[in-house]
Design a protein that fits this description.
Oligomer: single chain
Number of strands: 11
Order of helices and strands: HEEEEEEEEEEE
Helix content: 10-25%
Mean pLDDT: 78
Number of helices: 1
Amino acid sequence: MGQFVRALGLSAILLATRALFAVEPGNLSTIQTGESSLTTVSEPKDVARVRIPLRLTRFEPIVVQNAQGTRRMEYKAMAPVSYTLRATINRSNHFYLADWHIETIPMKWEKETRNWQVEIKVYKRYGQEQELEEFIGTHALRGRLIGEDRLFTLETQSRQQFNNKRGSPVLLLESGSIAVEKGNVARRTP
């Protein structure tokens, strides 16, 4: 019985000390936030946005068996899906498209000529709730921005196939006028 009372007293003390560290909403004066990538920053309304048209074609493995019973693995291209990424011109953006996580990282911006260079990183998402990711590869895009009123479209044309570690195709990424079809609009995550 004495141990139970001591354990009960210890849990009451722990709960009391947690209450001392509680923070009221809006009162962050005692907490040092520091620099963090998770800090929410309000953007000015005049930040330019860029539409990046992409078409993703994923490959699925299939097993092919001939008449002699020999089995081999082949990869079949599935139906391509078009997306229009709406990224900000001055910072990286994350897009979650079906089984893919795409990150756009601006590399170079020449305001006078409107030439813009962006690096696209592609990750494959796995798991029941897609909590796991595998890095697939990087693709550099450069082109000219067409448009006005802080809403531009990247005019470029490129194509890259990403392979897995065994050299089998995983994803075909096409950008620019190749991918300009009526596609799904992908907005950046806040």
